[in-house]
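so the lab meeting is tmrw and i was supposed to have these ready like two days ago... anyway. pasting both below. for each one the top line is the aa sequence and the line under it is the structure tokens. i havent really looked at them closely yet so no promises
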Amino acid sequence: EPQDDRERELDALAFGTLIHAVLDQMAADRSLWACDDAERLGRWMEDKLRELMRARYGARPWLGVELAVNSAVQRLKMFAEKQVAWHADGWEIIQHEEHRGKHIEINGVTVRGQIDRIDKRIEDGKAVYCILDYKTSDKAKTPSEAHVGPSFGDNEFLAAAQIPKGLIANSKTDKRWVDLQLPLYRELAKQECPGEIRLGYVSLSSALGSVAFNLWDTYTDALHASAMTCVEAVVERIKAGDFQQAGRPRFVADFAGVLLGDAAKTIEPPTCPWRADA
């Protein structure tokens, strides 16, 4: 029976990659990101998206691809309105993903990152920077929701992940770091951005009303110090070959058919090849 090797639909990664490519090309052209015509910007992004789609999936892609592209077009057109308003508020793009990635040294380990976008504006005569990361998941999360989660209490696998009480506004329960992306981006960018650095997401969710520039307004220097303490502890764990996870490993069910009981207890882990005492 003949089989068609065309991709039938876009998974989340391919969908995000397509939108990122359009946004990065927009960021490279000042006549686009600085324009005051949201309709014109939206048309350009739709044309570019369909051009990239044809190059990857052909002139007659499967229906699933067409549906995903139509969804992406709607999100990008809504983003165009937000981008015009954002620029009118004084923000200008100074770096985007096409630029060379950045790296820093943390406890002897090189950490590299590729920041989607850095914007800048002048406030009271001083430069203010904003690191932005594009998010294309269907359900939008704020930066705080994505980075901060509930603590595991006394069974916390990494004490440094605990966030000191008082650093999270209006929180009645203990919190911990569950993601360190934006704090690391701030650390990566601080040498090139000598001033206040703000953090945020550009959310392009399926709910068009949620398409927005979502800044982490409650992110403070003290919270950043807590995040970097966690980063350093994670680096030390990696150097020691310790990859213990917080809570029950998510991959356990994947091995249920071939292993007896808990995979972590069934398999003897190999000796870590880079430990000095191995």
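ok protien two:
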Amino acid sequence: LVPAGVSIRYDYLHKLSGKKYTSDDVRGILGALGFGIKAEDPAGLELTVPSYKSDIRIPADIVEEIMRIDGLDQIAIPESIRISPSIEKDKTSAPRLEKIAQYLSGQGFHEIFTNSISNSKLYSEETLRHSVRMINSLSADLDIMRPSMLYGGLQAIAYNLNRKNNDLLFFEFGKTYARLPEGGFAEPQHLCLYACGHTQEMHWKQKPVKADYFFLRGVLEKTLLACGISQVGFETVPSPDLNPALQVMAGNKSIGIIGDVAPDTLKKFDVKDPVIYADLDVEALLAECRPMQRYREVSKFPAVHRDLALVLDRDVSYSQLKKIVLSSGISQLQTVNLFDVFESDKLGANKKSLALSLVFMDEQKTMTDAEIDGFMQRIMKNCTQQLSAEIRK
């Protein structure tokens, strides 16, 4: 076993510690700690690191060892402190994240802060292949930097459930860590949402409402809308921890994932209640955010409601259909909502019917029936051409 080598210069030691040490003092302290002196000159020392100090890798670690033995109370407080003022490159991200946190708090969510160090036994071999391991971990249960935000949140949920706090709405900002194939590390920032138990307490007018996928999806869509992101879609994707799992799309870009936590994942933390989870990539989210919202006068002209029922292949999702409808290029189309899903052998093999409610409004004038009919024809043409849809009459 070849011992590691580290060099320390006396001027660097003085600069970092703020105290002038003699060469005899430095040799005495490091020798007592088991460091070997491989070479010496008036400027500094070249050292060999003892095998039991695997955390010593850079000159700053040597400075820390010297100051620790000498005593931090021996370091004189300087009369003046030199600092370099930092320049914030992105001045918009902090206000946006603060706005998101305020919105979620207003929706009844509580912010949590979980440990960024995790247990490698919780993760698969594939995940561990790219994980960042601790060099000198203090605990066998905390030996890697977390590759996922989910498990820390589930630990917080399990802790609360064991103490009879059964209705939980959490959100968290945090980083995950991974080793890059080309070297270096990735530290993406995440925004995670968790829902477990009831979203509303028992009331004399209504029964308690259980949290489900549609509740968290609604919160997520409104949160994105508060950031100026209105074109939100969801596409099914595979995931080892979520079942089902849907990719969150802002336009054509993926910004996160949402779904029910898989039973096998819940078993790892002895959580018996269903948990719904959403994970957004903060960098991708901020890239899609629009300028802060502006307010305008409510339109004086009436809205027009039309319904449209389409027969589609069973594997066509509502997200796909909504995307086609919105891509028709009709600025007067305000909202698209799904109000009915119908399946029957009478529709044909592997067919289903989706019924949409469409709302049109022109802020400059009252629209005529002929204009609305033209919009509907354009939408139906797109759906029949791109999804092979049939109009259900």
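from a quick look at the 2nd one: The CA atoms of residues 16 and 68 lie 13 Å apart. Residues 369-387 form the longest helix (19 residues). will dig more after coffe
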